[in-house]
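Bug report (template v2)

What were you trying to do?
Predict the complex of my protein with pyridoxal-5'-phosphate.

What happened?
Run completed; filing so the output is reviewed.

Input:
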Amino acid sequence: MNIPFMRLDRQFAAHKDAYMAAVERVFTHGRVLQGPEVGEFEERLASFFGLAGAAAVGSGTDALVLALRAAGLQLGGKVAVTSLSFVASASAIALAGGKPVFVDIEPEHNLNREDVLLELVDKRAVDAVIVVHLYGQMAETQDLRRLARERGVIVIEDAAQALGATRHGNAPGRDAHAVCLSFDPTKVIGAQGSGGMVLSADADLMERVRRLRYHGLDKGHPEGRVYSEIGHNSQLPTVQASLLNVKMDHEAEWRARRTAIASAYTAALDSHPLLTPPQVREGNTHIFHKYVLRAPGIRDDLAAHLKAQGIGTAVHYTKGLHEQPCFADKHELAGDMVEVGRACGEVLSLPIYPELTDGEVGEVCTALGAYTV
Ligand SMILES: Cc1ncc(COP(=O)(O)O)c(C=O)c1O
């Protein structure tokens, strides 16, 4: 049996003609940066999220940096963020000139502790908050946004792992200054390379993101090329947008398939005495960008058992961000991070992509069911 943790080759094989036709159209018209497919992709995502503005950028990391800058984060500003996430959720804060203030998770859903975020905002102990919608389900944002508005605190949603997720029927971004996406190849809608996006209902914020993504250029300035602030060069290549447009045609179908695979895994784990399947928070639609189980005390042994049967797994994440050397003297802690530490020793991610066959899903379920210590 060989069931790798990820495999993009099957997706390519299934949609090769559409991908190659999209690439050929871009190479033929030749507008390889800011071509029409970029605008089409932006409009499509703005409508998907129900937000007025969308700007495609070079990566999810850039999206977070630009959103923080455009929302007005000042040099040295403090930004609360979960310690259980991909490194970019916090490195973007430092790159935007701020300082991460790490918060712990609530262990059931692995999401940032909302009570801690609310307290930090209430006391105005932070200037901004990044809410991470981890693994494919959304954290709560409504009360946070209401309080943040009163206290003048910036709220950015990191929905890199949550395209298609909803909470009480709403997509990410409704309760924030901006929401950021990643189209990294591991994502549910992934580029053949890097890509990201900032979306917001705030027209001024979006105008600033567009300026910052291209060197701070003031488009349409009467004096010609005027660069009004120091910007980045962070663009989504047209060819990537053309592929992402094709992939968006399959978003609902792929999401349904991942959800079906997740249900099969959960059915296999529900009666297992040692393993706990991921919990879906009430009111959430989980897109299972990642299927992350908990295996207290036996995680590495379980990974070895699955590996011996040709099943690839991964750990998201091996360390809390507060323990990563890159943040060593550049962060603050809002709590003891006990639950993040526990999660890092227990979590294991199973292969979950739409191209897994029913037979392969069955093999993973059998291997899980057969696991004993
Ligand atoms: C939660 C989260 N935030 C931010 C990022 C950064 O995105 P990118 O890799 O496109 O820079 C990622 C993914 O890679 C992510 O999973």
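What did the reviewer find?
The first helix runs from residue 9 to 29. The mean pLDDT is 97.
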